[in-house]
């Protein structure tokens, strides 16, 4: 199984919206609604932000939203804030009990 | 609230076996429909799923790690463990344990344990 493809970097100014893509194949992202997104600040453990493509865990601001079209999932952060600056990773179920992560995207708030 | 804590040696010699334990508090690892996983992150790199164990002891491993991985659990101690054999420098990473209540995502993570493979 190959890692999901994410852009290495993304950026936006405070208050703007930014979308991070996560491209897989018809064997993972395209076949299952089991895409999740994680935020990781330096030196910390990842934090679940979105699961099952669009669902937000309790406590995650509604500025974070997820979607999927075909083999590509996306995470949108609206109303960017300084604390949103972090690395973001997508994850998808890939069948046969396998899970695969994306390579990560560094989000910079300008 | 569920808490997870990794423990184990921070330094392992090449060709030897890496062993880590995750202690769970605030919940039972034997509760039905629960899964418990290991994820690693080499320094400066991305996340990699290593494997998962179910509440009943069934294990699921990343095919890329082939047969080097063994995951087990001790419900009496509320712990689950990872063994990775024949390690090389490429196995140097922060190793995280996490819960997977429905297998497909990881809501709670341990703080991570850095394991360095070096002679």
Keyphrases for this structure?
heterodimer, A: 110 residues, mainly beta, 9 strands, 44% strand, B: mainly beta, seven-stranded mixed beta sheet, four-stranded antiparallel beta sheet, 0% helix, 50% strand
Describe it for me?
- The complex is a heterodimer of chains A (110) and B (119).
- Chain A is 0% helix and 44% strand.
- Chain A is an all-beta fold.
- In chain A, the strands form two sheets. In chain A, strands 1, 3, 4, 7, 8 and 9 form a six-stranded mixed sheet that branches. Chain A has a three-stranded antiparallel sheet with strand order 2-6-5, with no helix packed on it.
- By secondary structure, chain B is mainly β.
- In chain B, 37% of the residues are buried.
- In chain B, strands 2, 4, 5, 6, 9, 10 and 11 form a seven-stranded mixed sheet that branches. Chain B has a four-stranded antiparallel sheet with strand order 1-3-8-7, with no helix packed on it.
- Classes of the chains: A mainly beta (110), B mainly beta (119).
- The interface between A and B is medium-sized, with 24 and 21 residues.
How is this fold's topology laid out?
The complex is a heterodimer of chains A (110) and B (119).
Chain A: E1 9-12, E2 18-23, E3 35-40, E4 47-50, E5 64-69, E6 72-77, E7 86-93, E8 99-101, E9 105-109
Parallel strand pairs in A: 1-9
Antiparallel strand pairs in A: 2-6, 3-4, 3-7, 5-6, 7-8, 7-9
Chain B: E1 3-7, E2 11-12, E3 18-25, E4 35-41, E5 48-54, E6 59-61, E7 69-74, E8 79-84, E9 93-100, E10 108-109, E11 113-117
Parallel strand pairs in B: 2-11
Antiparallel strand pairs in B: 1-3, 3-8, 4-5, 4-9, 5-6, 7-8, 9-10, 9-11
